[in-house]
UniProtKB/TrEMBL annotation:
Pfam families: PBP. Residues 1-28, 83-110, 151-220 are annotated as: Disordered. Residues 156-170, 192-201 have a biased composition (Basic and acidic residues). CDD domains: PEBP_bact_arch (cd00865). InterPro entries: PEBP, PEBP-like_sf, YbhB_YbcL/LppC-like. This is UPF0098 family protein. Residues 202-214 have a biased composition (Basic residues). NCBIfam families: YbhB/YbcL family Raf kinase inhibitor-like protein (TIGR00481). Transmembrane segments: none annotated. It comes from the Archaea. Residues 181-191 have a biased composition (Low complexity).
Length: 220
């Protein structure tokens, strides 16, 4: 849909337009929506609608991936807080492409993706033909002919973030530090010198000393 107004704007205190979306808003992290604020809602707007989607999902998923669909937001709703429940303001939320109602955060599977947050000012409230199973396509069809203004902000997120990996088992070991399980003292004393030398030889990799993974090696 085209942008109908240059003065209608949307922003977030969590990230600037075009910047990286912080971890806590990702699907595999806290999975709460970032805070949003908007200005310039045109006179005559009866409701607002919000669509958050991922155009870069077309290649891995075969479609634009919808993350959040909300409609009948009161124009005076300001701001949209972090972790917002639309129903507390009388708004409605549809079903995202995770098959869940409400917000589903970024979760790219292949590379860095760009996520659009689009806020629509509508001249009317949308009727009961939209229910909690409604998709972004359903919402955009219902909005057709009723859009007064559109505002957009974008944020990015990659598959593995350098400052926090959602899966702690995938983190590399600290530089120059290994964890060795100690044997009971009685077991060590029970071994003969020959047995201890043979045990150390089995633990040593071929070609010399063991190589310790450093942070710069990355994560496999």
């Amino acid at each position: 849909m085209p942008t109908h107004s240059r003065t209608h704007t949307i922003r977030s205190s969590a990230f600037a337009d075009g910047d990286r979306i912080p971890d806590q808003y990702g699907y595999r992290n806290a999975n709460v929506n970032p805070p949003l604020e908007f200005d310039g809602v045109p006179d005559g707007a009866a409701s607002l609608a919000l669509v958050v989607d991922d155009l870069d999902a077309v290649e891995p998923a075969g479609k634009i991936w919808d993350h959040w669909i909300v409609w009948n937001i009161p124009p005076e709703q300001q701001p949209i807080p972090e972790g917002w429940d639309p129903e507390t303001a009388g708004a409605r939320a549809g079903t995202n492409d995770f098959g869940e109602r409400g917000y589903g955060g970024p979760s790219p599977s292949d590379r860095e993706h760009t996520y659009r947050f689009r806020l629509f000012a509508l001249e009317t409230e949308l009727g009961t033909d939209l229910d909690t199973e409604a998709t972004a396509a359903d919402l955009e069809s219902a909005m057709d002919g009723h859009v007064l203004a559109t505002a957009t902000i974008e944020g990015t997120r990659g598959r593995i973030q350098p400052d926090r990996d959602p899966d702690p088992t995938r983190r590399s070991a600290p530089a120059r530090r290994t964890r060795v399980r100690a044997l009971p003292a009685a077991a060590v004393r029970a071994r003969s010198p020959t047995e201890r030398r043979e045990s150390r030889a089995r633990l040593r990799p071929r070609g010399g000393r063991a190589r310790v993974r450093r942070r710069s090696d990355g994560v496999g």
